[in-house]
Amino acid sequence: MQAKAGTLEKKEASLGWKLILPTVIIIGGLIIYPVIYNIYLSFFEVSITPGKPNIFVGLQNYAEVITDPGFWRSFG
Predict the structure, then answer these.
(1) Once rounded to an integer, what is the mean pLDDT over residues 3-19?
(2) pLDDT recorded at residue 62
């Protein structure tokens, strides 16, 4: 009887993963991908004008934010 119980538990666990996998993929697509893409874009000077290429600026955007007094005032 123990062998059947172990097999049943494995089947239930497998079914659980199969049922939750679509949700994990959707969450990954709707939340994780945009976060990673925005981190990627933060290293570029992005133009909203069509046809203009994005220019790689490295950490310059972060340096500008850190040295901006308005940024620090926004914390109160």
Answers:
(1) 85
(2) 96
Domain tally, the chain = 2
Q: Is 43 exposed, middle or buried (0-12, 13-18, 19+ CB in 10 A)?
A: middle
Question: Which residue is associated with the tokens 């097999």?
Answer: 7
9 and 28 in a common domain: yes
The residue behind tokens 């950490």 is: 59
72, pLDDT greater than 70: yes
Asked if 56 contacts 43 with a C-beta cutoff of 8 angstroms, the reply is yes
Q: Are residues 25 and 3 part of one domain?
A: yes
DSSP character for 30?
I
Q: Give the residue numbers spanning the domain of 55.
A: 42-76
Same-domain status, 63 and 47: yes
Q: Which residue bears the tokens 């949700």?
A: 23
pLDDT (0 to 100) of residue 24? 92
